[in-house]
Amino acid sequence: MKAFEHIIVETRGKVGVITLNRPKMLNALSFGVFGEIATAVDDLEANDSIGCIVLTGNEKAFAAGADIKEMQPKGFIEMFSNDFIAIRGDRVATCRKPTVAAVSGYALGGGCELAMMCDIIIASDTAKFGQPEITLGTIPGIGGTQRLTRAIGKSKAMDLCLTGRMMDAAEAERSGLVSRIVPSDKLMSEVMTIAEKIAEMSLPAAEMAKRAINRAFETPLSEGLQVERDLFRSTFALEDRLEGMAAFIEKRKPANKNR
Ligand code: CO8
């Protein structure tokens, strides 16, 4: 396992866990942090024994946004000519394997955007989400205006992005941003249970399900349904599909081979 400066990467059975580790700065996301997360995703995606990736922070903060101290002196040309955000900043969203964000405390700005790159967001009851960039004279730059709007609709996305206010876990769940809220002290155990369950599934089937759902955000319904049908039919080439159905009929657990 590589040594990282700002994150901790572990494998726990079939689950890869990336923990943001800049506690004094509430896990502010510098370019270096984004780069390390991208490298960790590269590694965990290439690791055949990993079936699900969890991204988390600490109790006080998932991440309080991009690193404002690093960004403050930068100018337009430096930000424009460097396409880091598109190439490495979005790496969590392009991961083929299922990803789960375990969010406790602040998930603001780039932190909220990073959580939204994951497939599932599980929030502790202390979680606070927001896009406060407007209060800094800027706007979300790594998915906040797009993924948030798709997740919670125009009015609430406008409300958050234009006022910069935070929403608590209950509002985030009500709005569809997070899938479940769990007590703060149980966040990681609950998330690991979910991630382990996903990692037990056939990985190619999980990747196909993920791909099909993500197409819903990119295509008209008829195209999305076609993609789904094609991927569904593709599962009939999987040994895991044959085994999964046989196991059901024989009333036993399937032994997935990820093939
Ligand atoms: N960047 C840099 N440092 C930060 C950040 C941040 N985003 N957030 C907190 N810190 C630092 C503070 O400066 C402070 O450091 P120090 O002790 O040296 O003064 C330390 O973390 C603790 O923070 P606070 O004392 O402020 O803690 P509080 O509990 O009083 O407040 C808050 C917590 C409310 C979360 C507060 O820290 C805050 O408002 N933080 C900034 C939130 C914010 O505006 N986030 C959006 C940033 S912009 C963005 O994310 C754009 C993304 C676009 C993509 C970029 C790609 C690279």
TrEMBL record:
Q: Name one GO biological process term.
A: fatty acid beta-oxidation
Q: Which InterPro entries match?
A: ClpP/crotonase-like_dom_sf (IPR029045), Enoyl-CoA_hyd/isom_CS (IPR018376), Enoyl-CoA_hydra/iso (IPR001753), Enoyl-CoA_hydra_C (IPR014748)
Q: What UniProt keywords apply to this chain's record, in alphabetical order?
A: Fatty acid metabolism, Lipid metabolism, Lyase
Q: Which Pfam families match?
A: ECH_1
- What CDD domains does the record point to? crotonase-like (cd06558)
Give an example GO molecular function.
enoyl-CoA hydratase activity
E.C. numbers: 4.2.1.17
What is the top-level taxon of the source organism?
Answer: Bacteria
- Which reaction is recorded as catalysed by this protein? a 4-saturated-(3S)-3-hydroxyacyl-CoA = a (3E)-enoyl-CoA + H2O; a (3S)-3-hydroxyacyl-CoA = a (2E)-enoyl-CoA + H2O
Top enzyme category:
lyase
Q: Could you confirm whether the keyword Lipid metabolism appears in this record?
A: yes
The answer on whether this UniProt entry bears the keyword Lyase reads yes
Signal peptide bounds: none
Q: Which residues cross the membrane?
A: none
The task this protein performs is described as:
Could possibly oxidize fatty acids using specific components.
Q: In which family does this protein belong, per the annotation?
A: Belongs to the enoyl-CoA hydratase/isomerase family.
The entry's protein name is enoyl-CoA hydratase
- Which species is this UniProt entry from? Bradyrhizobium erythrophlei
